[in-house]
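pasting for the record
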Amino acid sequence: MDISKLNGYYEQIAEQTITERRFKYNDFCQVIGKHFEKKILNFLPEEFSFEKRKIFPIMFGEGKRKVLIFTQMHGNEPTSTLALLDFLNFLEQTQEYQKLVNKELTLIIIPLLNPDGLEKFDRRNAQGIDINRDAKTLISPEARILDKFSKQYNFEFALNIHDMELYYTSKPENLQTSLAMLAPECNENGDITPSREKSMKVISEVFLSLESLAKNRIAKYSDKFTAEAFGDTLMERGTSSILLEAGSIFNDKERLFARKVVFLSIVKAVESIATESFKNVSKQIYFQLPENIRYNAFDLIIKNLTVKSKYENYTIDLGIRRIKPTFNPEDFTDDFQDYRILNIGKLDKFGAINSFDASNYILKGDYSEIFIGRKADFEISSTQKNEIINIKSYGKHRPHRRNNGRTTPTFD
């Protein structure tokens, strides 16, 4: 499969009925209903969440080698499910790929494992349990569903697909990570078992196929053994587990770019497994992937802004970042649009998703109006032309400049 070519006509494949990340369970059910009517995919008996919402396991293929694909065990991580819905469209529409998968593999696909969490847009299930920390205790019905399928089918591979916070990057470019991948450890020693080595090789091949599309935006997720997590548990059982984490890029609220990258990674990973082309790829590529680093950065740094006062004029940088209005540390920051000033001074040593050099701008208003915690709803004006930039609109899209009555986006 030519991934660059597929990227060119992705829009024709992508599921069009859901374009926003914060969709509802009923929206998802409508899309699933369309696939059911096509009768290309084999829908297995329905499973049920804690609050008795339907979970729809899907089977495709008649091959001996079995692969599990599941998404959104965390309810506030919907990009994974949207990418998988795109994959279902692709699988139904692309006959050559369909024939390959049908012959070589049996796919068990579980989109949206945590529908109760989706309805609340919460990481955890309706019981307040993190399903991805319930692989051993199996308190939640959703965890028991995964456990049942794992033991019933003895999967050779499993794709475990998530979303991650937007504040992740990889050195040295400091670009936001769009896709992070991991071959989870299977024990405290970090042993590279045959199953884990296969995961590493598939990840390496996915990276090679996507490198030009998502240049410097693909990383290796944090590699720490978590015995109670499903990815690690599957690896313990001998399944080659692969974690895919959808990230973000600047000015992409709906994570459409990450959604596409994850979709392409699913396509490539399944093809790699079906053809066993991963066997010809060196696992050393996996170890050369940059680490996915938590990026303690600002959304925006305004640099070299002049502030005038009756005491003296001075130049400062302003660090602006979103804050969470909730008390839940598991909420994603990019689900909120409350931008605040969180630092003032010389901020050269701080990272930022975006920056603006305000060397030729002055603050409109008094110096006392700029303080830590203030909403980013102030204006700056150009000293060289008739132009005012309103920072307030950054929370919606980007800061806007006002010039002769017209408003146009800036900070490209």
